[in-house]
Amino acid sequence: SCGAGTKCGESFGVRLLCRDIMGSLLRSEEMAYVRLYFDQVAAHDTLAELARSEIIQLEDLNQEVSSFQKEAAGEIRRCEEMLRRIRYLDEQAKSYKEDEHYRYSTELEDRRIMSPKKLEDLDEFLCTMEHSVKQITTHEESIEGSYEELNEMRLVLEACEDVLRDTNRGERGFVTSLVKQMGALTPAAANAFRELSEQSRTYSGKGLVNFIAGMIDTERRAAFERTTFRVTKGNCFVKSEDVSGGRTLFIVFLTGSKVRSKVERTCTAFQAARYPIPEDSEEREKSHGACIERLRELELVITATKASRAEIIRNYRDYLDIWRDFVEDEKTILQASNKLNYDTSRSLFIAEGWVASTDMEEFTACIKRGQLSSNAQAPSLVEVRGVGKSQGEPPTYFRINKFTSVFQAIIESYGIAQYEEMNPAPFAVITFPFLFAVMFGDVGHGVIMACFALILIIFERAFQNGPKRSEFFAYCFNGRYIIFLMGLFSIFTGFIYNEVFAVPMNIFVSRWKFTDESDMACGIDNCEDPGAANPPLKPYPFGFDPIWKISKNSLAMFNSYKMKLSIVLGVTHMIVGIFNSFWNAVHFQENLDIFFVFIPQILFMCSIFGYLVLLIVVKWMTDWNSVECQNDPNCQPPDLKAILIGMFMSPGHVPPENTLFRGQAVVQVSSVVLLRGGSCVSI
User: Fold this and answer.
1) pLDDT of residue 206
2) CA distance 423 to 427
3) Is the dihedral of CA 275, 278, 283, 284 positive or negative?
4) 142 sits in which H/E element
5) What is the pTM of this model?
6) What phi, psi does 543 have (nearest 5°)?
7) What share of the chain is helix, strand, coil (3-state, %, to 5)?
């Protein structure tokens, strides 16, 4: 298992190397159960060193205590609140757009915050910063809301002035403007309408016609107009016009206080903004001027507010990643400290956990560094309490690297192997990209995938140390090696399928040709009788002949080939998995699993699907156009489904047209017997 010419007992170094290879590729690492004693002063630095090295899996010694009652529960909640504040500040920083008018220093006055050492200092600063950002953001939103309202009022005033402008003044001019807008009244009706309005003002002091103006969302415009018409029973006239920002300006002309009350309630129901517009033209001009002046003042206030907000954001945004990493590290340390047991009599912390046996030296060095960095007087001690399953069920630990990590992640998405079970990830390194390529199979697309992944591999350090990547790019970058292998295998299968961007290649020149004497093609070196459609004596050197892409039976041939290829690969894949379970049973000395699980599974698989694979291979390797086959009337490619059905219906009888090789009847009888025997064993 260690390689040709190598013995595991030659030296400690070679033995360790061989064991590391086997542990990394096939089985999980041997784990040791350790107990650690360290002083209270060294607790933080020791846990920090262990967290950075990721070398131990701690056991919770306080399982009987609720998570809310553990010693560091309050500090953990504090870290979560700090992370929430950092996320909020990060969202505000992302919403901030760079402006050339705002250029401020990015250095903070408090140097302790730039590289924090204590949670208390950073927590106080984040609390102050969050309050400042929220306050100024709320103030900015309030001012911008007021600005939008004034701007809408300005638009309404200008629209009303355009609608109601008339050479005459007073009520007659107002009514004249309305009549012009309505445009459907006859001259006599228009004069009667003016006289009725003047009489109404004479007796009641109010005009017969008034109006309501405002803004509404454009999507609610049609419904608003219909509802207004219905509630007033047609006693109104609505004029509307779309403006920018998805808003619509409207003016409703109406008569009477009751109708006005109904329209006002309709505006409220549709969340329409109503603005007080004077009926007198001079008053409207004064309101318009005051509105313009107020807008100019708000623009200055908004500019100053944005400058203040920009200064705050630019001062902290470059340190968000540092703060986030620091708080997450502290949270991890606090969570680990909740798993420790404190010996009050000796003022010592006690920790227990699992460490890989090959990492014991590095583990001891981490403990030593934690003690030295904390300046603890009492030494830290390590006690190995057992190896393997002597102290319970150890965790599964596979040593991975940047190449195998993605394959291990795919395997663990289905399930994690038990301690010392065989690891399927080494097999997936080849099978996963190859099975993808069987499906994908195209030289052109494979080259694109391989080149893209190769760029990520060559410049991986630049991408790792560069700016934060998007989620999609992060997935591609983490899977760069599997994408590269998928691209290479796709190029290989693409040459077999003879496709470049779904276009056939004619690299070695087609071995078939069409003639005028027949609709069927014949081999270029075997075309004495074109009507016989004889195949070429020398087939295409590699892959499929390009002429298959233009043949009428192309789809049937390719579907048949890919279906049979899928069966061969799938059955092979499953047999490998069954043998992996066999090696696990041998390793754990589980004889019952060997006799009552492995043997029935392998008999069932091989007696049916293994036999089917044998039939497929024999059918592929048989030359159906040979002279001997041409002289035999029963030498025809058989239907494999009929052979399988006949194996169960009449195991000892194989019709001549379904015979592929000598002794086929004996093989079928043996397969049926083994299948029944395996079923009896499993029962």
Assistant:
1) 47
2) 8
3) positive
4) helix 119-164
5) 0.70
6) 80, -165
7) 60, 10, 30
Q: Distance between CA 592 and CA 633 in Å, rounded?
A: 51
Decide if 601 contacts 452 (C-beta within 8 A): no
Give the contacts of 578 (CB within 8 A, at least 6 positions apart).
Answer: 598, 601, 602, 605
**What tokens appear for 415 in the block?**
């399930």
Q: Has residue 87 got a pLDDT over 90?
A: yes
Helix pair 320-337, 119-164: axis angle to 10 deg? 130
Q: Tell me, what DSSP letter sits at residue 459?
A: T
Burial of 251 (0-12, 13-18, 19+ CB in 10 A): buried
Give the separation between CA 29 and CA 52, rounded to whole angstroms: 20
* Cα–Cα distance list, 617 to 443, 553, 612, 622, 632 (Å): 26, 22, 9, 9, 21
* Three-state secondary structure call for residue 172: helix
User: Which amino acid is present at 381?
Assistant: L
Q: How many CA atoms lie within 13 A of 293 on its CB side?
A: 6
Pairing of strands 209-217, 273-275: antiparallel
CA 250 – CA 244 distance, rounded (Å): 14
> For residues 464 and 458, what is the distance between their CA atoms, to the nearest angstrom?
12
Output the pLDDT for position 103: 45
Total length of the chain: 683
Each residue's pLDDT tens digit, 470-479: 888 888 999 9
Gap between the Cα atoms of 273 and 266, Å rounded: 11
Q: Which of 371, 499, 481, 375 is nearest to 432 (CA)?
A: 481
For the chain, give the percent of residues with pLDDT over 90: 27
What's the mean per-residue pLDDT of the chain? 82
